[in-house]
Q: What sequence folds into this?
């Protein structure tokens, strides 16, 4: 990944941490985020002004995603400003004055090119109290069946601090993923980002949408003749594309599944996707339009065929000679004279 430039006011012989940061920002922040911010302050007071996500990640034995989450958190708190190049890659970090930023973290500002702010980001989510955070982390550990590492704790706090998820929504997020046999924090984060993109703001809203989609999933599986198992991730990916991206009704999707079974006599999400992608290109949005498309296809196919004509039998070896006509009366006279 390309490096970036760190900007700010500093002194070379010491690392200055403002009392405002210690009093107003540090108590509510995740410990991993605090370490990243302090490291940026330290880099300002050294000759290492050019950094990269990779270098910082290696320094703390984190992933680049972990570092970027911390940076976005501090950007939301208005202690840093992330700068991006034309290629939307991080090109600079500007450390802002914590004294000027104090009390302004709740004021939304226009999102940067890589910001993850949801449609509801203007709603201020109150910070977790220590008791609330400990209770949520305990519940998550029970669902996941393990003690969370500091990096995993930071990811869960990111759902609240940056994505704006409430404790109830985070709890349901973990419960939902574990119920589908996924305990990886990486998977849970990908689901969280999808919910964030959809604009879910409460556990009840997420439950309503996931329940609706679950019913659709099993209806599609039933159309394929599959009734004895849950859908796998690859199948869910196809179904989400048909429902969300293509915007097709369940009636159209099950029709494509039925045509798939009639054509190849076995369930195939790939085959059904070819049918549905064709309908998408033809701007089909209802079953009646599908039937009209079928009729046009049959008509154009019939018009392309040449008119039927009487087929001439190809010559066989028994007809592979020039046919002649004989006068049998004349032949009879010639035989008598002889």
A:
């Amino acid at each position: 990944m390309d490096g970036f430039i760190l900007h700010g006011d500093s002194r070379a012989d010491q690392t200055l941490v403002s009392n405002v940061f210690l009093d107003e920002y540090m108590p509510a922040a995740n410990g991993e985020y605090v370490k990243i911010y302090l490291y940026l302050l330290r880099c300002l007071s050294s000759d290492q002004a050019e950094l990269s996500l990779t270098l910082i990640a290696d320094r703390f034995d984190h992933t680049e995603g972990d570092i970027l989450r911390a940076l976005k958190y501090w950007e939301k708190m208005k202690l840093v400003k992330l700068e991006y190049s034309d290629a939307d890659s991080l090109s600079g970090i500007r450390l802002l004055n914590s004294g000027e930023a104090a009390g302004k973290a709740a004021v939304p500002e226009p999102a940067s090119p890589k910001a993850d702010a949801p449609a509801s980001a203007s709603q201020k989510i109150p910070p977790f109290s220590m008791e609330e955070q400990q209770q949520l982390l305990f519940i998550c550990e029970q669902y996941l069946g393990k003690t969370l590492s500091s990096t995993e704790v930071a990811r869960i706090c990111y759902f609240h601090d940056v994505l704006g998820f409430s404790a109830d929504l985070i709890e349901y997020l973990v419960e939902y993923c574990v119920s589908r046999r996924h305990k990886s924090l990486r998977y849970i984060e990908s689901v969280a980002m999808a919910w964030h993109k959809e604009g879910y703001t409460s556990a009840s809203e997420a439950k309503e949408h996931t329940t609706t989609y679950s019913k659709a999933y099993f209806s599609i599986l039933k159309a394929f003749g599959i009734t004895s198992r849950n859908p796998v991730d690859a199948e869910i990916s196809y179904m989400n594309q048909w429902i969300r991206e293509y915007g097709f009704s369940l009636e159209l999707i099950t029709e494509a599944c039925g045509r798939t079974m009639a054509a190849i006599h076995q369930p195939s999400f790939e085959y059904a996707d070819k049918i549905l992608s064709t309908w998408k290109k033809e701007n089909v949005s209802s079953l009646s339009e599908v039937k009209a498309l079928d009729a046009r296809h049959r008509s154009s196919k019939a018009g392309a065929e040449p008119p039927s004509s009487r087929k001439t039998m190809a010559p066989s070896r028994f007809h592979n000679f020039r046919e002649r006509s004989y006068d049998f009366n004349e032949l009879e006279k010639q035989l008598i004279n002889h």
